[in-house]
Design a protein that fits this description.
274 residues; 6 helices; 24% strand; alpha+beta; 27% helix; twelve-stranded antiparallel beta barrel
Amino acid sequence: PLPDLVPQTPGTGLEWHKKYFKEPQRFIMKKATLSSDDFRAWDAKGRLIYNAFHPGKNPYEAVDVLGLTNEKDKYQKQWFGEWGFHCDVAGHNGWPAFEVRPKAFSRHGTQYIRPRRNPKDKDSPEPVLCVGKMSRTKTKSVRHWHFAGAGDNTKEWHVKTTVDLAARTVQFFNRDDELVAFMQKSLKTLIQNAAFGTGSESLLDVAAGYDCSAIVAVVFALNQVGAHAVKDAISNFVVEPLMDAGTDAVIEYTGTEALVKEYGQGVNWAVKKL
């Protein structure tokens, strides 16, 4: 069943591509197969509308997105590691592409949403939306609250979101504290979480008369809040090399080089067969 969303008048909330509908709309959000980073979104008819991806990851529709084989090396060498802060979102079936980038300096992990940059252009497009954390000194709540505003204006929000303490739902409120969107984990995901500790499928419902393109873009940006180039650089050039060196030392000390090599060849063969 759909949540009790309050119908809105088009043009009174966040706007981007003005995808308004007379009835509430449902979208399905889910992580890519075998991936812990990249999300995809479908409409209620099962049509893919968005998929997010990061440099250093295997491309869309690749089988080995987890990098189990040596195939990931060419992506890693091209980008010098994985850069989670650099999030591009490809659009499908009439939904325009966009990109999510962090604010250069921010205490609240602010992210900017803007149209995908044309490689021929020197300058990036101006932000159309911004998303970040709200200070707990202002919210006075143990829950996590986020804001979404127009352009790069982080001082004036149009939508605020909150996550329940069990991290099962996300509520989107407008300035009048009306519920304009609601995201919840699906029953399938709750069962998978209880049984196997996995599952990422969520259902996103948007109120009639609210711009669906803005809300869906905000959801992708929420996944990026806190990501930054500095964090990725430390991971790629400090943490990962130290972990690799430690792994190599253990393998060499235990004399299992041949076994590890044989295992790698077996995984490569299995993935190629798939």
